[in-house]
Amino acid sequence: MLHRLKTDFRLSIITLLGVCAVLGVAPFAVFRFIQGQIAVGLFDVGIVIGVLAAVAHGWITGRTGTSGLLLSLLSSICAVIVGRFIGEPGMLWAFPCLITNFFLTTPRLATGINLITITALMVQAQGSVEAIQLWSFFTSAVMVSACAYAFAHRNASQRNMLEHLATIDPLTGVRNRRCMDQELAMSVAAAERTGQPYTLALLDLDHFKRINDQYGHSVGDDVLTTLVNLIQQNTRRTDFLFRYGGEEFVLLLPGTAGPGVKKVMCNLQATIRKHLRVEGQSVTASFGVAELEIGEGVDGWLERADAALYRAKEAGRDRIIYAKGSGEQTESGASQEESLLT
Prior knowledge:
Blueprint: H1 2-7, H2 9-34, H3 38-61, H4 64-86, H5 88-91, H6 94-104, H7 107-125, H8 131-167, H9 177-194, E1 198-205, H10 208-215, H11 217-233, E2 240-245, E3 248-254, H12 259-275, E4 277-278, E5 281-282, E6 285-291, H13 298-314, E7 320-323, E8 329-332
Parallel strand pairs: 6-7
Antiparallel strand pairs: 1-3, 1-6, 2-3, 4-5, 7-8
Enzyme class: transferase
Pfam family, one: GGDEF
EC number: 2.7.7.65
């Protein structure tokens, strides 16, 4: 729970508003009922229930964007209603809503919601609030919204940049191991829920260290980026490629199993042999492939693929080893084409 609050900024804001709703509005609801103001008390109870429902939705589904938008709309509507019945003092309650809207939803949506809220408050306040005070409120509200927009826009850009740095391998541009762990966990959960097949392929360039030693790390980097381009050009957009470490990569194939997997792997092996070259000679790769089994966890799934890759290396490299559930493994042999590193 604490981990989610630390890592999900929007969820933490939504949760904070939920706590404020219970601690701040609920006592007023009780007070209204004691004073016999049943209608106002029910209104306060409705606010609390609506906020708590939005918070619960965010926690249960993880769709904080929807929960944030609901909270933003709810708080803005309540601000307009409070301003309608209390008048000028009630309009001051709009300022916290105008600010928090930019933390609950996107800057563009928050700007639209704020403009509608400010307009509604001004329209209903005409005749009951002096013009000078009304326009003072308008100026202050617009300035607060503009400053909040600038802060939220900057904050969103920085979060996107940090997320990119945390999940993307800077050399190849593919997802890194941290992102892989999350995606594999979601794939296991999806497989248990839907029964959809998933296949994981662990591939490793053969004798990559020799390329770095003989030609330099810049050439080795070019080989890695070329490999990534070849894989991406010969797989689907729905497939996921991760850099596992060094010259090792993980390819996740959702919805693919059996003969379909072998067709993809054989095509990748042939493509790498043909197009991945240094000084005119081919660079090959070894593959360890494992289909996700029913009830299997991420660690076991990855270990089977890793064991298959080890077998491929031990068998002479430039091979595809398919891991079986019983521990049995099948092999696709190496090409007879000349290899740079054999």
